[in-house]
Write a structure and sequence with these properties.
Elements (H helix, E strand, L loop, with lengths): L2 E12 L8 E13 L2 E10 L15 H10 L4 H14 L12
Antiparallel strand pairs: 1-2, 2-3
């Protein structure tokens, strides 16, 4: 069974917009597929518009909040997951082998 996980790797912010500190304007994300000893990755960056009516304080943000923003602002979750599964299915399992000079 293929296991898919999403992770936010980094955030970029602008300081002090309308008295809000650390307004997140960009997130770098990673989608990973794993099965047995094989894995594959797709990563990307999503830019966000400045908040218009609701704002979550930086120290109150969760990874789920930021991932939701990514999906709302153009990251096609289903398409990326299908692509990372396809990459996994096309990859061959690498095995550790000995060194020929030993």
């Amino acid at each position: 069974m293929i296991n898919i996980t999403w992770k936010i790797e980094a955030l970029k912010s602008i300081d002090n917009i309308e008295n809000n500190l650390y307004v997140v304007v960009e997130a770098s994300w990673l989608c990973k597929a794993e099965e047995l000893n094989k894995n594959s990755y797709i990563s990307g960056t999503t830019k966000f518009p400045l908040p218009s009516n609701s704002f979550i304080e930086f120290n109150q943000l969760s990874e789920e909040d930021v991932l939701r923003w990514c999906f709302e602002d153009g990251v096609n979750k289903e398409e990326i997951e299908n692509q990372v599964k396809e990459k996994l299915n096309q990859s061959q399992e690498a095995k550790t082998i000995g060194l020929p000079w030993i």
